[in-house]
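Checklist before submission:
- one chain only
- standard amino acids only
- sequence pasted in full

Submission:
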Amino acid sequence: MDITNRFPFTPFPDGIFAVAFAHELKPNTIIPITFMGEQLVLFRSSNDDIGALESYCPHLGANLAYGCVKNNTLQCPFHGLRFNKEGACLAKNHLGIAGTYQLKHWRVFEIYGLIFLTHNPLAREMQINFPDLDLSGWGAPIQHCFNIKSHPQEILENSVDRLHFFQVHQYLNIKITAPLQVIGAEFTINYQLERQNGLFGSWERKPLQIQLDIHAYGLGMSKVDIYLPKYRLRARQIVFPTPIDGEYIHIRTLTSISAPKILANLLTRIAAKGFLADFFPDLSIWENKKYVEQPDYLAGDGDFAQYRQWAMQFYRLNVNSVPDVMLYNVPA
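Returned file contents:
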């Protein structure tokens, strides 16, 4: 089923979205990606600058993914023209000929071990404040990437879906400790819930109490801070959904545990396995569900209406009313 028929809004919302893990783009290399329905190339120069440009040379249409990185520019494989990370044709080819070509380019960020691009074709005003995460004392994050038919709005909607925590994930005694709060392009919501089995299996007879603090940053990032009072352990799960071609999205994830250095990496690997066990049922539901625009809500449902109203700001509904700049605050 085509995503354009599944959702009453564009598959390409505005915001900041992860497009690759940083280790995938080594110095002097190029990787092709599809982002928001467009073919792009990412390249990293020898001085660690990253560019994101449209894939095809404006001269005679060669695919720049088959070129090379030379003198901190992207060189076309066909006639040798070179482009900097802003898409300007700065260097001459081997015949001494240069063109006044300009490639479309995207603003790039590299944080948390990922590479992010902005999507804001109308230059709208929107403040998105990615957090400056202190990773000292945390295990090396475990990375995963999933490819499914869905939409970022569906992924983050799980944050407010109180009933699914029981039915899909078998949590008990689910309580909202801080209701959904919208803060511009962000929202927060907190839960307290329990697992029937403890962290180390069914031999632990008492349910395990868990606290979840969820913070979303646009439709491209959701951070879940997890606290287990019994073990005094803190975990972090970050989800980055990114539209690809109008039908599929990538969901990149990071999982980590805060613990003494000798245990942090081991506990992080254990936590990552638990995350996958929780996440796989969500993936299947997201990929096969239908979007219900006007649900007949059940008692105990989460605040879907407020969440969906919040999400509408990332869609270009009224071109004449949009301001002329989008603001981002991303840690260096």
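Reviewer check: Residues 261-288 form the longest helix (28 residues).
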